[in-house]
Amino acid sequence: MTEKALRLGTRRSKLAMAQSGQVADAVSQVTGRPVELVEITTYGDVSREALAQIGGTGVFVAALRDALLRGEVDFAVHSLKDLPTAQHEGLVVAAVPEREDPRDVVVARDARKLTDLPRGARIGTGAPRRMAQLNAYARTHGLEIETVPIRGNVDTRIGYVRSGELDAVVLAAAGLNRVGRIDEVTDFLSVDTVLPAPGQGALAIECRAGSTAQDAELIAALAELDDPFTRVAVTAERSLLAALEAGCSAPVGALADLLADGQIVKEMRLRGVVGTTDGSTLVQLSTTGPVPETHEAALALGRELATEMLAQGAAGLMGERAQ
Asked: For the residues of 84-143, what is the DSSP string, one character each?
């Protein structure tokens, strides 16, 4: 008799289905059980309002978490940058698999790079974080651009460029990789130009933190997919975001990267940025230290950098504070 299939809750978008499919295969390998995808529509998927207006990217997560808590699915896969920073009671992030490329990328007409775009180029993005940094970069490099707020899936966003409505759009490299469209990228943005969203490129596998033997067994199995370096990096990034008291839609960029000497990882550098969406003011700082060996040490690193950023005036740059 074959074991009962595990039910994986996922959003219905092509990207969510692609990344959930990859996780399903990995979970099947470590558990020896079949995994079936359960498609769940979230409020963020059906609403056409700007993300900041409807509560930031947490709107993509609530319906999946509800399904988990009701026992309709056994575990769920989220893009980590969509996950609110507060720990959800009754749930646990059992695994953060190895991170994909965290960078942002440009898909532009005529295969142009950011610096080759025509004067007054219209660049689409849904993220205040990208707008702030792109506009700041343009100011300091003598580029004339206009950032245009957009929503929609990968097809919709790239469609704006193909139809000529926009000159370029900025997307996450990881998402295009996962849906097999990385060859459409015309420019990979250095993290020195645009710092990614905290957790960008990483996935979170979440399940019930229950007391039953089945829950404990599933947590242990999923933990085999955890990448400790990715987890410590995203923990520091998300701690920075939480300490700035910013929601997922705030103009905050953060990246923790591991600095290696040959094969030996020596240190971790955490960089953070927050700015006004017009790019006129940015607070950008970094800190480097030993790789945190505990969850608490990673949290502390993020909090310390956030404290320095707040001292430099970061709080006044985030618009309305997330409630």
From this structure: -SSPPTTEEEEE-PPP----EEEEEGGG--GGGSPTTEEEEES-HHHHHHHHHHHHHTT-
Single out the residue of 69, 76, 59, 80 nearest to residue 9, CA to CA: 76
Q: What is the Cα–Cα distance from 8 to 95, expressed in whole angstroms?
A: 14
Average pLDDT, the chain: 88
- Rounded to two decimals, the pTM is 0.88
Burial 95-104 (b: 16+ CB within 10 A, else e): bbbebbbbbb
Of the residues 11, 65, 129, 231, only one is catalytic, namely 129
Catalytic residue among 82, 104, 167, 187: 82
d(CA 115, CA 141): 9
Catalytic residue among 65, 231, 248, 271: 248
103 is catalytic: no
